[in-house]
Write a structure and sequence with these properties.
By secondary structure, the protein is an alpha+beta fold. The protein is built from 19 helices and 25 strands. It binds adenosine-5'-diphosphate and magnesium ion.
Length: 619
């Protein structure tokens, strides 16, 4: 073992920097907090290349004295607290005195500042080397520029994602902080383009509207609860404005955005029974709590806080949300099954929320109409197979052919083929009698017995095989979307889209970043029919997230095709017309290994006539 020695300051700073600066978004957060601590009326944030190239934050706050500039970039130097007791009642966003020192360690940092009573000065720190303070004719307030984040730390730079992905994290950091400070005018630009321009406003609702659109601003419901010492106020979404992820759940305490699993759990409880499983509500909650009841010094990047009595906050949040839903008539948006119309909403809420684990409500929405009335085969079955029989069942690879293939002569299937006709061999096959049962199974008489088909599993397999063959042959039919579909995604999902753009593209899904947390889908395969692109993209991303990003390209494409097939296929519970049933049964012959869906579940079970005869003691 080597002897112990004290680390030089630069190494200490570099280690600390690793905790404070994770990516450009951390720089945005820290600089924005510093600006807001200086009591500005306006702060402008500008980024280049997702913040990797440049983060610039300009404020018109109090400024820094020229003599203090070297201290501002020194670790553990701060103007925000003096003695340990100050930690008990922190009212500023910063207090650790670490941010500027850490950033200066891993980038080139330039500060220009002027206070009301002195002339301006500037200071540059480049990879930990602090320059001289020089006079600067800047205006009142402070401008901080951070160039080339991790430019001098190749190991960290390698972990940065694409500028697009870094941008989506950085803009999220801006949004979270901007939400907590409606009284300050804020703007955000990326590569010279203004993305947010938020005036100073008096109400939280107005700031939310500025960030997410007037539509959402108007739809949110006011909530509040108070226990005399602690209070929560907020704006929450209606159940039908639910989201796939937690991105629209914002918590703030004393101007500080924070994360807290327990409070979000209380939110879930408040919405229990009102949301479909897996869906998340939109909530903006702000807590007013005496400073000595909350510890903000528990996380190096100040993302989390600790409350002295978390159970009290939990109860308050739950009460705030439930009271609102009891007051609001939710019956226009939710339909309780088997509930007498005269029963009050309060009764229903009481039951829905007490009945743990049993959400008794179902969403009323436009039910997907699955060709129930359509006399012809609907588009979602995909194009009929070409009469050339290109995709007719290939000779099974070294295994016995599926039973129905042995039982009946093979023939290329074509539309209308289900009718009796004469095949080349001169055998007259009977029309297969196929009936849908319980909206999930199709029972077919086949040459050797009775087959029970799982309609979803088979259709999924059919679609998958068709898609796969088209991709392999380079003739995948893609439908460009006249109106591209916009989808809101989590930052990690945006990352996946960017990483797998090529695989998506090869599978006919063109998904492009659209700034912030939005992507647009501009095309999808014709075989996907009317399935919403958002459903497909989410399914596909969930699958891609589970495989190594640098996996074999064709395997990634395959993953996309599986996801596509799974989403676009008819579901268990979809009623089918006779024509649809017939089309699906015919399609069965077109796919190899069609007795298994892509997940490996069987698509059909065969009850042979022999077995049936034996069971009924006929033999
Ligand atoms: P902290 O914010 O935790 O005090 P920082 O490293 O972020 O630590 O900043 C160090 C000090 O530099 C702050 O305490 C503050 O006095 C000063 N400072 C930084 N940014 C600004 C700004 N935009 N306006 C005024 N003073 C600032
Ligand atoms: Mg700070």
């Amino acid at each position: 073992m080597a002897r112990i020695h004290k680390l030089p300051v630069s190494v200490v700073n570099r280690i600390a920097a690793g905790e404070v600066v994770e990516r450009p978004a951390s720089v945005v957060k820290e600089l924005l907090e510093n600006a807001l601590d200086a009591s500005p009326s306006r702060v402008d944030v500008a980024l280049e290349q997702g913040g990797i190239g440049l983060v610039r934050v300009v404020d018109d706050g109090g400024g820094i004295e020229a003599d203090d500039l070297p201290l501002a970039v020194t670790a553990h130097a701060t103007s925000k607290l003096r003695v340990a007791e100050d930690l008990e009642r922190i009212e500023t966003l910063g207090f650790r005195g670490e941010a500027l020192a850490s950033i200066g360690e891993v980038a080139r940092l330039v500060i220009r500042s002027r206070t009301a009573h002195a002339s301006g000065a500037s200071l540059t720190v480049d990879g930990g080397r602090v320059g001289e303070v020089v006079p600067d004719g800047c205006s009142l307030g402070t401008t901080v520029e951070v160039h080339q984040v991790f430019g001098n730390v190749p190991a960290r730079r390698a972990f940065l994602r694409s500028p697009q992905t870094e941008w989506s994290h950085a803009s999220e950091a801006f949004v979270r902080t901007a939400l907590a400070h409606p009284q300050v005018a804020l703007s955000l630009s990326h590569n010279g383009r203004r993305v947010h321009d938020l005036p100073a406003v008096a109400s939280w609702r107005d700031r939310i509207a500025g960030l997410f659109g007037a539509g959402l601003g108007e739809r949110l419901l006011d909530v509040s609860a108070d226990d005399g010492e602690i209070s929560v106020r907020g704006l929450i979404g209606r159940p039908q404005d639910d989201m796939a992820g937690t991105r629209m759940q914002h918590l703030t305490v004393a101007g500080r955005p924070f994360r807290d699993r327990s409070i979000l759990h209380a939110v879930q409880e408040g919405y229990r029974g009102l949301l479909l499983s897996g869906r998340q509500p939109i909530v903006f909650l702000s807590f007013a709590i005496p400073p000595d009841m909350v510890d903000v010094n528990v996380h190096p990047a100040k993302m989390e806080v600790r409350f002295r009595e978390p159970a009290r906050l939990y109860r308050l949040v739950l009460a705030a949300i439930r009271t609102e839903f009891l007051r609001n008539d939710m019956s226009t948006t939710l339909q309780p099954p088997e509930v007498a119309p005269e029963e009050s909403t309060a009764d229903i809420v009481g039951r829905a929320t007490d009945d743990r684990g049993q959400a008794g409500w179902t969403h009323v929405g436009p039910r997907r109409q699955i060709g129930v009335t359509s006399p012809t085969v609907p588009a979602w079955f995909g194009q009929p197979a070409s009469p050339s029989g290109r995709s007719a069942p290939a000779a099974p690879h070294g295994r016995a052919a599926p039973l129905w293939e042995q039982a009946e002569p093979q023939r290329p299937a074509a539309p209308g083929d289900g009718d009796a006709g004469t095949t080349a061999g001169g055998i007259v096959p009977r029309r297969e009698r196929a009936v849908q049962m319980h909206d999930r199974y199709i029972v077919v008489e086949c040459g050797d017995g009775i087959e029970v088909i799982d309609q979803h599993a088979l259709h999924e397999r059919v679609l998958y095989e068709r898609l796969k063959a088209s991709v392999a042959e380079g003739n995948l039919e893609v439908q460009p979307l006249l109106i591209p579909e916009r989808i809101e995604l989590e930052a990690a999902e945006i990352e996946l889209v960017t990483d797998h753009a090529e695989a998506l593209d090869r599978a006919g899904m063109r998904v492009e970043p659209f700034g912030g947390a939005t992507v647009i889908v501009t095309s999808k395969p014709v075989l996907a029919g009317n399935t919403p692109a958002a459903d497909i993209v989410r399914e596909v991303l969930a699958r891609l997230a589970a495989v190594a990003p640098d996996g074999d390209a064709s395997m990634l494409v395959d993953e996309v095709l599986h996801g596509l097939a799974c989403r676009a296929a008819i579901k268990a519970g979809d009623p089918l017309s006779h024509d649809e049933v017939d089309a699906l049964v015919r399609e069965r012959r077109l796919v190899r290994e069609s007795h298994h869906c892509p997940h490996g579940r069987p698509t059909s079970l065969l009850f042979s006539r022999q077995d049936l005869d034996r069971q009924f003691r006929r033999t």
